[in-house]
Specification:
Strand order of the largest sheet: 8-7-6-9-10
Radius of gyration: 21 Å
Number of strands: 10
Strand content: 5-15%
Helix content: 40-55%
Largest sheet: 5 strands, parallel
Distance between the termini: 45 Å
């Protein structure tokens, strides 16, 4: 539950752990008791952007069950642009359930803010991740998290320029440091998975590719240059090392966040998606619940979080490449074929 060292060892060896993970939940519960029907949460953590949204999704489920109104914010420094304010969540998203009166109370400090680095520090009564599924989560996203019109405009502009009137297969490869959470899929194996898909679904006539690894983008573009068009967003913040983009000290912080959001939404616009383990592309399924998704590698048991945990249950294509025993073909017609009918 606590990972690595025993709980006793952590308490004895780390006063910081004692204050953050044992005391902070009580502080947050005290704040919540003084907040009426509001719960204001600021996440400040070095996890990726969509891991932040995952925390917010768990909080949204708690609010749904207890008739509360959430306000999500994040001051995590890896995405903050000082010219745009300290809360990067509001660069891209809105809190849909907040009233103008609620916003005014929060702005003037009338509601205490629960400041956390991880979801357990909030002191929620349950592990809400275990209750999330692909039926409930998209409804929570639609109800509580809005995407700003400026971001939607960029997504729609890209689709109009490059993907209009095309049947698009989305491809997402999460590389760099993800090997600590799931066995990597070799590039040639991913190509075979794409080839298998295209053989069984001939209406698809282009690829949209997203990855945190520049090498993967170059590899796919070269492999399919004589077969079909390959499109990708012109990201400035891709990794050329094993360091994840959000953990790198270099680059434009705002662009890192914006490009993550844009790629997720662009993947959600595709006709189908083949992916590796990743919160980013998992959230594409939440923005578009009808998106057929095939996950090629199973996260390790201790990293088997939502939404990939539930996406694995929908892997139904008998032709899908089984990478190192991690994919889950179950036989029968593919979900893609059923969507074609």
């Amino acid at each position: 539950m606590f990972g690595g060292k025993s709980l006793l060892a952590k308490i004895v060896g780390s006063p910081i752990y004692l204050s953050r993970d044992l005391i902070r939940p009580y502080i947050c519960r005290f704040h919540q008791a003084r907040s009426g029907n509001l719960i204001v949460v600021d996440v400040n953590s070095w996890v990726g952007l969509f891991a932040h949204l995952e925390y917010f999704l768990e909080i949204a489920l708690h609010c749904e069950q207890h008739n509360l109104t959430p306000c999500f914010m994040s001051t995590s420094p890896q995405y903050v642009d000082s010219q745009r304010g300290s809360n990067w969540f509001e660069y891209f998203f809105t809190n849909l359930q907040l009233s103008a009166e609620d916003e005014d109370k929060i702005k003037h400090g009338e509601v205490p803010i629960c400041r956390i680095e991880g979801i357990r520090q909030l002191g929620l009564p349950q592990n809400y991740d275990s209750y999330l599924n692909l039926r409930i989560a998209p409804k929570l996203v639609r109800k509580y998290i809005g995407v700003k019109s400026e971001i939607l405009g960029k997504v729609n502009g890209f689709c109009e320029s490059y993907l209009k009137n095309k049947s698009v297969l989305g491809v997402h490869y999460r590389g760099t440091d993800k090997s600590g959470e799931a066995s990597p899929v070799p590039y040639p194996d991913f190509v075979r998975a794409i080839d298998n898909f295209l053989e069984h679904n001939r209406r698809f006539n282009c690829l949209f590719v997203s990855s945190d690894e520049q090498r993967f983008i170059d590899f796919i573009e070269n492999e399919f240059k004589h077969t079909l068009p390959v499109f990708y967003h012109d990201d400035h913040e891709r990794s050329k090392t094993k360091i994840a983009v959000h953990r790198s000290n270099s680059g434009d912080r705002y662009r890192k966040a914006e490009e993550a959001v844009l790629n997720c939404l662009l993947l959600s616009k595709c006709g189908a998606l083949i992916k590796t383990a990743s919160f980013l592309s998992g959230w594409s399924k939440l923005f578009n619940p009808d998106l057929p998704v095939n996950l090629l590698n199973r996260p390790f048991e201790r990293q088997l979080w939502f939404p990939d945990r539930e996406i694995l249950l929908e892997n139904r294509s008998p032709w899908t490449l089984s990478t190192r025993g991690n994919a889950h073909p179950t036989g029968g017609n593919s979900q893609y074929d059923r969507n074609d009918e």
